[in-house]
Amino acid sequence: MLKHLDPLLSPDLLYALASMGHGDTIALVDANFPGTARARRLITLPGIGAVPALLAVLSVLPLDTFVTAPAQTMQVVGDAAAMTEALADLGRAMRDCGAPEPEPIERFAFYEAAAQSFAIVQTGERRLYGNIIVRKGVIG
User: Fold this and answer.
1) Is residue 68 a part of any domain in this protein?
2) Residue 80 lies inside a defined structural domain of this protein
3) Residue 78 structural domain
4) Domain membership flag for residue 13
5) Strands 132-135 and 71-74: what pairing?
6) Tens of pLDDT, residue by residue, the chain (140 residues)
7) Is 134 helix (H, G, I), strand (E, B) or coil?
8) Residue 110 lies in a domain
């Protein structure tokens, strides 16, 4: 155990976050996401929702301030303007951390961006569209 760290930050997740460089991304995805097929590195957080996982990550990860949208979410298929409960909660979590709104991107573009991420964190989120990619920044 370490002091002052969210207990959701497992050793594997902490190692991945610490190993990432400026501009690297990490995808936090829901239980339905094809994580095993897409991930370079797969970290699992079974039974943990997307928002608690995101908040744990954001408690130690600086977001990239050199881009307008340091986070991306998956658009709802067939209705790009739709806002699911999971998407709304992810956006609220970003705002509560002082970050800009996530940029919604098309489903297959999200799959590709997740596949290019440093790691994919497969959560136990059961709500549809509980997926977000965040880009690491620097500590000044």
Assistant:
1) yes
2) yes
3) 23-135
4) no
5) antiparallel
6) 789 999 999 999 999 999 999 999 999 999 999 999 999 999 999 999 999 999 999 999 999 999 999 999 999 999 999 999 999 999 999 999 999 999 999 999 999 999 999 999 999 999 999 999 999 999 98
7) strand
8) yes
| Total domain count, the chain | 1
Residues with a catalytic annotation lie at 22, 64, 111
Backbone phi, then psi, for 4, in 5-degree steps? 65, 20
Q: What is the largest CA-CA distance in the chain?
A: 45
Q: Provide the CATH number for the domain around residue 105.
A: 3.40.1650.10
CA distance linking residue 39 with residue 93, whole number of Å: 24
Q: Reduced to 3 states, what is the DSSP secondary structure of residue 136?
A: strand
In 10 A of CB 78, how many CB atoms?
A: 7
- Whether the model pTM is above 0.90: yes
